[in-house]
Design brief:
heterotrimer, A alpha/beta, B alpha+beta, C alpha/beta, B: alpha+beta, OB fold (Dihydrolipoamide Acetyltransferase, E2P), 6-stranded antiparallel β-sheet, 3-stranded antiparallel β-sheet, globular, C: alpha/beta, Aspartate Aminotransferase, domain 2, 2 domains, 14% strand
Chain lengths: 485, 134, 445
Amino acid sequence: MSDFPGRTGLILDEPLLWEKGSSGRCGFSIPRRDVDPFPIDASIEGEVPDLPELSEVDLVRHYTRLSTWNFGVDTGMYPLGSCTMKYNPKTNERQAALQGFAAAHPLLPQELSQGLLRVMVELERFLAEITGMDAVSLQPSAGAQGELTGMLLIHAYHRSRNRKPSKLLVPDTAHGTNPASAALCGYRPIPVASNDKGILSVESVAEAMDDETAGIMITNPNTLGLFEENLKEIVNLVHARGGLVYGDGANMNAVLGVMDVACTGIDVLHLNLHKTFSTPHGGGGPGAGPVCVRKHLEPFLPVPRVVEADGAYALSDDFPQSIGRLHAFFGNVGVMIKAYSYIRSMGAENLKKASQLAVLNANYIKESLKQTFHLPYDRPCMHECVFTDKHQAVHKVLTLDMAKRLMDYGFHPPTVYFPLVVNGAIMIEPTETESKQDLDLFIASMKAVAREAQENPDLLRQAPTKPKARRMDEAAAARKPCLAE
Amino acid sequence: MKEIDELILPDDVRYASDHEWAKPENDLTTIGISDYAQAQLGDIVFVELPQVGANFLKGEQFGTVESVKAVAELYMPVAGEVLFVNKELEESPELLNKAPYSEGWIIRVKASEPAELNALMNKEAYLDMLKGLS
Amino acid sequence: MRYLPHTAGEIEAMLGVAGVKSMDDLFSTVPENCRRSGDMNLPEPLTEWELNTLMEGLARTMAVAPGFKVYAGAGSYEHFIPHAVSYLLSRSEFVTSYTPYQPEISQGTLQAVYEYQTLVSRLLGMEVANASMYDGASAFAEALLMAARITRRRKVAVSSLIHPHYLRVLRTYFGPSDLEVVEIPRLENGRTNSSGLPETDDLAAVAVQSPNFFGCVEDLALFAEKAREKDALFVVTFTEPLAYGLFRSPGGLGADIVCGEGQSLGISQSFGGPGLGMFATRMKFVRQMPGRLVGKTVDLEGRRGFVLTLATREQHIRREKATSNICTNNSHCALAAAMYMASLGGKAFRELARMNRDKSEYLKGALAKAGLRAPFDSPTFNEFVILAPSGFERIRKMLFESKIVAGLPVVPFFPDLPHHYLFCVTETKTREDIDRLVSEIEALL
């Protein structure tokens, strides 16, 4: 244990905001009052808001302590499958915080906002180039909103051809947002099973596909970390039967510079800037989920779009077939600036190298751990690999217990219990920013945990013991929800 | 996780293939979920009950049961009109875990097709089915 | 490249373990028909220093404070953000952590979001708030979808004075469904016509924005009553939450769902995003609420802790039956809002709100003296509409040369209101600034 990062803690307790502070304290420098008070009608005047009163010192201590209870990518390896927890470059933060960007009002006259309009146009071009697609909208605020956009584009396309198909095929390995987004657009998701190689077969898609089906959503590489090898045949089949293909690009980090999305025939794809393009996760968001489309879907893209005329950039709503808006303004521009900075810092060669190293790292882990953990698909993987708890279950140790124990070793656990097609799944995505040293330490920790599962299983069931908190009573939290005070 | 031989499976109820049980008591049929179902779900945190007076066909969804990490739909093992719902489950959903065949009963219906009860499995048939599942 | 740690020797050793001879072999499962024919055509990589130069140059083209004085609102507001807040927000453990699915190592995010939920509930007068949505517009659309789910009705009545972009987003979200949107017309005084509701009995919700797009405060109690008469849910949306430091909260006036944009609370404007979708409701509707929720509980040792809860509403469990498809949210922005509210405290929040209104009233008075009167006779907060003489657009453009953005034209949003301009004044403008704005306008009239 002493050779692993998770050894001791400097963990101080900290109460809730309203349990500290004192009436009369304030942490804000109130601006100087230089105008007279204006009378306010008693019928609309409300009570002083019941917000706790703290000094700046209280505030800083509070949030500094809270931050120490969190594990981030900057703390250590975070091998969450399908999340692509790669290093978040600090220079990207600096660019997004530049006054000219951070303080910009979205409705500034266009001649006074050329800098950001240019960043948006160039980012669209980069993403189009990277995917091979024809046009891009940066507007969706997250992957799920990108999926909804894609669903609306497909819906609009069919409408324009006087069709109203009601179903959408969704593979059994799909992320939960896929059927949820389809349902939000009024489609009934029809599950399609993956075959025993862990990928979709043309036959099962053909069987499920009919005239009432708008199309299919495919994640490639899929959530088992496997490349959907029958992709092109499936796309051709779906197209032949009048459907469109939505690509969930969450796992794009495996194939930058390798896969040409457009030539697979995919009609619309979303990307996650907070995964592939290094923007930070911020404890749950914000991210961005731009969509890339082929020409025939371009007229339906959300508005406004940035257009170029005589060397100047402008925003235009003049797209009569557009599905409309998904955001009050243009989307998460602050996130776009970070992704733009990343692409400008990496360039084509390094982006491709990132994918190669991501895939190398995942295969290295797969080969190093397959004697210890059950590997349901013993095939070359892409940027992530999936194990199960089958070998450890004989000791009555579950995936959950091993994930919790891994925290005591100083790692964030991998994704657990997803995808649903694998029982007790452990999905490991190292990303390219982990060095061989860090991977070796991770592998050694995983092996140590497996050994403990055999020799001292109760230790795992009680884990973790070292972080700020032990396992939570989630049943109590759900039975009697206490969500505010 | 319970082993199959650890499961409680009373003789005096009939079982549906999706793990509800039905027990005729006087003129009414009481419906709940089996010990297997509650063990699979884990700690139950919420039960969505139907309205009293609602009518359902056999196989129709009449409610849901939620644990922390899962939701299960409840389907009628027999057709009928809901006459009573177990309001205790609103305050104490854990009754479904602790006493799935007694205090954890979910609804009491007036069965519209009493013969449907015979189409359900007895304890031995249900046990066989469970063995086949694992 | 400094983000790619592997050395040639390490790569070689790892290829050996992986059982392949070269990097290309790792992609053996990628069929030819899916491959790129050539390398990506992207600009050559920049050093950190070149990137700084590039981005600084682009940033300089933008019209922002302190060089520019921008008097615009309409859904995005300029407010001071204490450096302590920006500093704390930049802490790695807040920035680079993921969604707190493993509560033992995410108590920082979890407690901070529980605190955010509480502060938002208090500010808006509601019982529960979620952990954030993307922005005010999508939160608004989700609120109406939620109302439709709860009431099982298909029609919503929405004020025509809700931010037009929010209404556009609503129509986009409602597009493929059979849900119907009916707009409630406005009155001459700049408020929504509470007698303008459709006659139908099948309304899922009645929605207004307060302060509305014209900056006017709506009579929320009256609309709450109208909604109740129709057995519909009362939804209140907003673009400027600072207003609730001064005015009565929507919850206190009968709202069932309150949702809107939280960017004013410690979040940079950033050309419109990321912002913060704030969303609050009553406990009785909590299981129909979209978005993540943090709940209080205890751990194995009986110590208080926090955890994501009621997850069965969400997409990763409920899939197509989820209350929403939302996964990634705007958590870091919610953290900013909590820090901002905590740094102010109740009394200073009130003083700041008052100051916004007073400065705005000061400008309103000065413009009126210059002949630019406010046509809508209703109370406003920090933005208001004035009616300018025709030809004002030329003046407004000339003022760009003086580094002033004098309001926003209303006509792109309301084609029947030419020569109307929406002016916004916050605590960021001094009396001198405001005086200078008025004198520059007067000089050009």
